[in-house]
Amino acid sequence: MDFGLSEEQQLIVRTVRDFVEKELYPLEPEVERTGIVRPEVGKDIQRKVQKLGFYAPNMPAEYGGGGLDRVTFTLLERELGRASMALGVFWGRPSEILSACNDEQKERYLFPSIRGEKIDALAMSEPDAGSDVRGMTCTARPDGDDWIINGTKHFISHADVADFMIVFIATGEEQSKHGPKKRITGFLIDRGTPGMEVQPGYRSVSHRGYHNCILAFDNCRVSSKQILGAEGSGFDELNTWLRGTRLTVAATCVGRARRAIDLALRHAAERKQFGQQIGKFQGVSFQLADMQVEVDAADYLMLAAAWALENERPDANRLISEAKLFASEMLARVTDRAIQIFGGMGLMDELPLERLWRDARVERIWDGTSEIQRHIISRDLLRPLGA
Ligand SMILES: Cc1cc2nc3c(=O)[nH]c(=O)nc-3n(C[C@H](O)[C@H](O)[C@H](O)COP(=O)(O)OP(=O)(O)OC[C@H]3O[C@@H](n4cnc5c(N)ncnc54)[C@H](O)[C@@H]3O)c2cc1C
Questions:
Q1: Is the Cβ atom of 333 under 6 angstroms away from ligand 1?
Q2: How confident is the model at residue 178 (pLDDT cuts 50, 70, 90)?
Q3: What is the pLDDT of residue 155?
């Protein structure tokens, strides 16, 4: 087994980290202070990433994307994860679920997303349907060749800057061996479609400037041509997509934890108390050692999961859940310890640490809570034993 990165992967890691440190870090204080990314700043990031040749790195090369394999893309996400997510969103990584587009939809949604002309947001969660996605009550009923949508989606990330939404909606019910279950269908819906209102969401402690929104549907009429994939195939599409996004969560957690450790290490080497560097106190140095062990473990788990997904291994799902669970919980511990090593200054917004610590909290919740990841992992272990 080769644990080393190829030359190309090392170059990508260096290039992304360099960009993040030079171009994104200086913008972070303004985003934290104002809670917004000015539109011209977002456009500027897009332009620079395109010039770098790294826009839509997860999309197939024959469509104009970067065509990165899963492991390399995960490394890119790890480095990008060091920076504020509100800024990172402008480094376009179109939702991979768009690969289900038909030819007409590719022209209208996928290709413009790859060219940086459109940004997508994805909506499945509802006020009464979070972990239990199938419990959704947002429905679409057929009307001739159209569908009429009613209901509410909430917590929809960056819908305020998105040009179109990929929305998952119940389009009926079908029988399964466990009883009736909802048929879920994905729809591509343009911003400005009458009957769909994008409303401001809630103020979150994590990721300032990366807003969540409410989508309110009131007799919103969309054509059957807006269905992504086939009617009723949305649940499978969602589950496939969630594997990639959970891996991304793991990767960004590793990137942010490494940034926190870099800061803590420098501080431990520079700060003096009782006449010596605090890193010389075992109470501090052992904390640094434990932080490093945790982040390395998460990094290798993340890479193993990415490799398993790339190679469609049967254990890919479980490994991705393990990586998401471990990396998100690791980030909470590492950022907390890093603040402890800084003492009082760790809590002040002069440094990015308090932000990394706040941002860490959501990672255990979105894209499937820690409990849901434990459920997936334990089901995978117990099912073969008939339990
Ligand atoms: C900032 C933010 C941005 C988001 N962005 C998006 C987005 O862009 N698009 C989108 O569709 N969604 C988005 N979400 C929604 C996110 O995916 C959900 O919050 C998450 O899936 C959990 O759902 P919930 O918050 O309704 O909690 P609930 O599902 O109500 O869970 C509450 C608690 O019960 C536990 N629980 C639930 N079921 C089980 C079970 N079977 N076993 C054990 N414990 C269980 C949970 O683990 C949790 O601790 C976002 C959320 C946040 C906070």
A1: no
A2: confident
A3: 98
> Which atom of ligand 1 approaches the CA of 212 most closely?
3
219: Cβ contacts below 8 Å, ≥ 6 apart: 148, 149, 150, 195
Length of the chain: 387
Judged against a pLDDT cut of 80, whether residue 387 lies above it is answered with yes
Measured in Å, residue 176 CA sits from the centre of ligand 1 at 25
Side-chain-facing half-sphere of 312: CA atoms under 13 Å: 1
- Ligand 1 atom nearest the C-alpha of 133 is 21
The crossing angle, in degrees rounded to 10, of helices 39-52 and 7-19 is 160
Give the model's pLDDT for residue 206.
Answer: 96
How much is the pLDDT for 2?
77
CATH architecture, domain 7-101 = Orthogonal Bundle (1.10)
* Protein fold of 120-228: Butyryl-CoA Dehydrogenase, subunit A; domain 2 (2.40.110)
Q: So where are the chain's domains? A: 7-101, 120-228, 236-385
From CA 76, how far away is CA 92, in angstroms rounded?
Answer: 12
368 alpha carbon – ligand 1 mean position (Å)? 6
pLDDT at 3 over 90: no
Average pLDDT, stretch 32-49? Answer: 96
> If you average pLDDT over every residue of the chain, what do you get?
97
CA distance 309 to 307: 5
Ligand 1 lined by 366 (C-beta under 6 Å): yes
Q: Which residue has the tokens 């790890």?
A: 78
Q: How far is the CA of 376 from the centre of ligand 1 (A)?
A: 15
Choosing from 125, 206, 378 the residue with most ligand 1 atoms within 8 A of its CB, the one to mutate for a pocket test is 125
Tens of pLDDT, residue by residue over 41-72, are 999 999 999 999 999 999 999 999 999 999 99
The helix (run of H) or strand (run of E) holding residue 151 is: strand 146-157
CA distance 89 to 160: 12
Class of domain 236-385 as given by CATH = mainly alpha
